[in-house]
Amino acid sequence: MADMLKPDVTVPEGLDRRRFLTWVMASPTLMIAARLGLDVPEAEATEPLDSATTAMSLYLAVQSDGRVVTTLPRTEMGQGITTAVAMLVAEELDLALDQVDVRSADADPRWVIQLTGLSSTMRFLTGPLRAAAAEARARLVTAAALRWRVLAHTLSTSHGVVSAPDGRRADYGELAEDAARVLLPGVSSQPRPVSQFKLVGQPTGRIDARDMVTGATRHALDLDIPEALPAVVARPPTLRGTVQAVDGASARTMPGVVAVVPLGTGVAVVARTFGQALAARSALRITWTPGPASALSDADIRARLRDAMGPRPLPPLFTTRTLEGRFDFPYLAHAPMETQSCVARVQGGQAEVWVGAQDPKHAQREVARALGWGLTPWQVTVHTLRAGGGFGRRFFTEAAEEAALVSRAIGKPVKLMWSREDDMRHGRFRPASHHRILAYLGPSGRILGWHHRAAIPTVAFPHGFGDALTALAGQVLPEVTSAVFFALSQKLPYSFGWVNQELRDVAIPVPTASFRSVFTSQVGVSNEVFIDELARELHVDPVALRRERLTSNRLKAVLDKVATEGQWGRSLPPGVAQGVAVLEEWDSAIAHLIEVDVTGETPRVLRIVIAADVGLPINPKGIEAQLQGAAVDAMSTTLSAGIHIDAGAVREGSFADYRWMRMKHVPSDIQVHLVRSDDRVGGVGELGYPSAAAALTNAIARARGSMPTRFPILDEGV
């Protein structure tokens, strides 16, 4: 599991720390398969392979028309991985970016990992992609050399063409079939050194941008599956409530209604249009059994979390003062722009689903389990689609399970849609939490220790970390899996003497899921806020304290960058202040400086300065977009957005009352500075959230003179 959290996939010159197995596949053109994570002799790198027996990470094919197609065994959810994958392939093959097609891979037990999470996609795929593309280039050059009877090393490649010194040229499409028969490349098949990159590392527009803004991208509900019928589900008023009795007589007689299907999660209505299905859903008369959280509201949950704190531990020897901080975080909905949806066709002991899932193999298993019949995951085909956001929500496959059950019941394909209200009130949530941090101070303000105890309801990981073993552990031992993930992921990057961070798992029957940055979205945020409180207690500058105590040179570098670019410490008007925070996670380091004005009715963010070291920045423009989006998420959850539980029911039902930031709240000045190291590929998708939330909180604390301890800060619902 530790390897899953921190894969050793780096991109130094020539990939000399790790080799990646590549194979030539049986194909009329050149197809290369690659698998990551194996140290093998170079001589084994081009053995022919039967793809039915070996777990691959990706496939790359050079087609007869010269275009290159590569599979993407992860889910594009708007984070830009499609463009990054295309850039890596184009770089190694000397192609124009528009000559590369990237296609999502279906769920396949042979794949090593298909989980899109843990900021792992480009960390895992960069090495195999480069190895496969470099292998293809070497074979194409060798095929041309054999055709022209010249030395391979005298040939060059550019824009999909192999050229000889005498002017002879052949495009990749012409050479693809011959390249597939090459026994041993006549030139090196090692990826190029980073110093020779022309495309990777340059700000690049997304290859799918036009399709996104014109509506040409295809999500689940956009698919034209023959005979697929719209379906919606009536859901209980409380979380995980169940159907006690249903009267669907009136609904069945309404125009266009095809069927009313009871499910474990509610009652489905199938009709000719979604409008007809929604109208009939409103006509259902259902008696509900309350869910297991029906006796709980926000105050009860907070009390349970606080009660889990227990007594203070004994302080280290020579402690003269103990500084304490308490923090409360709310439940959060993921609220992706595309709600849960799925197309399913179940016929003759086979199931086929089209869904945007963050772990397609988990979707396979869950659909097979829901359908029963002794169905195996191999009898379920999962077509992975582009998803409109995920953030952890799409690890869970309720829509796919419901769609498959409804399709089986009516004998036809269905398009099942969750409404926004369904998704907000019956989805899964980042759990609420309560934190107690103790900083132990000795004579002369010496920092002797740090103790952070976090009371957090179990975070559900039934999908595991991309493999069957951890998925089984996540289902059978959820509390243990949650605790292990906490222990592996939560680090304090400061030299503070005796440091201890521990999780108190609290059983609360509200469905949970990992959220952007998982535990760090609470633990890391509260740590960085309390660092500022510690600086105030010691009467030192918070940037100076961090710089003195940080154990990571990468963190010091990004902190120095934001302090310089943000002009830390300059004179500001009354009510205006700056805050900083840092984070090192997912093989990346980041710092935020945020400037805020609290003179108005609500705090107003004036400027955000970000510095990040993500190793090799494949597409700086995509990284900038990711970090800007994460900063807006952090603004939202720090200031105004949170979920409230009232007697087991979620109060918020849409963006009208789940108060996410609007464009008018976003500062015009958001700077992103990349501090390049190029010695690895670091994660980005989750990186930008925790330190942005903490820096904003610290800015508000400096402006107001008191540390916020309960989030969202502007919560009016309690």
Spell out the key features of this protein.
five-stranded mixed beta sheet; 18 helices; seven-stranded mixed beta sheet; single chain; disordered N terminus; Aldehyde Oxidoreductase, domain 4; 29% helix; 718 residues; 3 domains; alpha+beta
Task: Give a written overview of the molecule.
This protein has 718 residues and is of the alpha+beta class. It is 29% helix and 23% strand. The protein has a seven-stranded mixed β-sheet, sandwiched between helices. The chain is globular and about 80 Å long. Residues 214-292 form the Aldehyde oxidase/xanthine dehydrogenase a/b hammerhead domain. This is Isoquinoline 1-oxidoreductase beta subunit. InterPro entries: Ald_Oxase/Xan_DH_a/b, AldOxase/xan_DH_MoCoBD1, AldOxase/xan_DH_MoCoBD2, AldOxase/xan_DH_Mopterin-bd_sf, N-heterocyclic_Hydroxylase, OxRdtase_Mopterin-bd_su_IorB, TAT_signal.
- What's the architecture of the largest domain in CATH terms? 2-Layer Sandwich
Name the CATH superfamily classification of the largest domain: Aldehyde oxidase/xanthine dehydrogenase, molybdopterin binding domain
Count of spatially separate domains: 3
CATH class of the largest domain, anyone? Alpha Beta
The helix content is 25-40%
Largest sheet: 7 strands, mixed
Low-confidence stretches: 1-19, 37-55
Q: What is the radius of gyration?
A: 27 Å
Q: Enumerate how many helices there are, as a single number.
A: 18
Query: What is the terminal separation in angstroms?
Result: 39 Å
Summarize the structure.
The chain is α+β, with helices and mostly antiparallel strands.
